[in-house]
């Protein structure tokens, strides 16, 4: 039974066409993998399947969800409530920061259930399907780890019982075990009749779920077929690390972080890193990896000491001087939340060079533009506002913004998770150049273990708020 029909779907941001005449039909329990490089239009298509678009983007054509009795919605603006749901690339974008997770889930369950017991059953079923721990329902989103936010957002999309579930890079920032668990849950949803639209760079996830696939290139459908037909077997290319040995650059002593209830998230972390070294920070979702990075950057309240080049930094970034703010740059896991909506991306990327390096505005823009182009963000794309860029494009822009500051320490939180192999290599090459030319120390927070084996000098494992191990990374023989 058909659950979604799309005819002649186009998306335009001013004079830029983001999608060109996309047609597709989706049946009950079917999986459609949407493939393509960063900026190809995957996220724009995913949002359009809900009849929605980013600010400044206009849609044309039709998106017709089909109800259970086979009837169509009138068009993309009058779709049946709950028929199509979206799990975005960065789940924090759909979690209400001022409301507890459980309250939002119960409110959404009430859209389809009048009885309190039925609503509670729907919330429980959604949590089970998403593998979200019900003990966390009273927490606010900021009290959840990235992986927990991912599961909470999935529960939020499932509680309305959608016929079509659109997933934008669903395994981004998840550790391998959690990713495998998510794939199992998605397979169960597929088998139960939910149609899945998978927007992804993760070829292994696409292969595991199977089904049909289409490939986008600059908003055009350039290939269709099964997942097996469209995905090749070549391994992703990686850039080998080129560390520059040198003086001790980062020293962390006794770093301790507690949440508002006084529960310890990190306990007495000690960590050293030398100039030009890349240290990978690994561990399960919720272990405290992001908190460690944010604590070093001065973005959360900490106890303990952080020194860069022998100088002690104030615990909070607001108390740090300009040279101290420049010394540590942090690239967030969710780049969209870090860009101003109304300012062109190029201006925002150039700003740290002006504020922290006293570079003239014109020179800062020129340097930022060259770096963005090197990372695959074309000048016409960089001139646009953030809402019109894909998640992968914004991720590269966020890294560029940190790189132009030329920091002593660069903290990267899952910066490659939303990127295809080619753009991932460009980004890693730019970071390698900063390490070589300026001796920048890099902390790479990541779940991508094969990537870490190729680019990091060593790893530290965060588990239960402690550093459980510190081992050299085994290099690939090639």
UniProtKB/TrEMBL annotation:
InterPro entries, sorted: AAA+_ATPase, ABC_transp_ATP-bind, ABC_transporter-like_ATP-bd, ABC_transporter-like_CS, P-loop_NTPase
Domain annotation ABC transporter: ranges? 4-243, 250-477
Broad class of enzyme this protein falls into: hydrolase
| Metal-binding among keywords | no
GO terms (molecular function) for this protein are:
ATP binding; ATP hydrolysis activity
Q: Known PROSITE patterns for this protein? A: ABC_TRANSPORTER_1, ABC_TRANSPORTER_2
One GO biological process term: transmembrane transport
Pfam families linked to this entry: ABC_tran
EC assignment: the record states 3.6.3.17
PANTHER family (UniProt xref): D,D-DIPEPTIDE TRANSPORT ATP-BINDING PROTEIN DDPF-RELATED (PTHR43776:SF7), TRANSPORT ATP-BINDING PROTEIN (PTHR43776)
Q: Which family does it belong to?
A: Belongs to the ABC transporter superfamily.
What is the recorded name of this protein? Answer: Monosaccharide-transporting ATPase
